[in-house]
Design brief:
By secondary structure, the protein is mainly alpha-helical. The chain has six helices and no strands. It has two domains: about 40 residues, no CATH class; about 60 residues. About 75% of the residues lie in helices and about 0% in strands.
Amino acid sequence: MNEEYFGYKIRQHLNRGLHELRPETAVRLAAAREAAMACQRQAVSQSLLATVGGFVQSQFDNLRLKQLISALALFIGVVFSAYWIADQRVAELGAIDSALLADDLPISAFTDKGFDAWLKRASPQ
């Protein structure tokens, strides 16, 4: 006998026995079922909206403090490194500009196509 057939037979037997129950027993079973269902109900701590805001709120409620601090530290590190790289680039361009302004080069040197390559080769790194 397979499991599905066995389950089917049990269901039929229980359904047949249901019609033979006394009314007092059916009332007690219904009360016991309601009491069991009342224990299963859980209070909702927040209202769940079918919007992005409800989803975002539930995601932030599940975050731990360590995760939030590490994400903040990562963000500060990225911002600081971007600032530092930009500052280095500005300082490099400033050094090239001051060298060009202090030198006596003709205007045609600035328009020469090989001038950029010469600048990169000649600038100290």
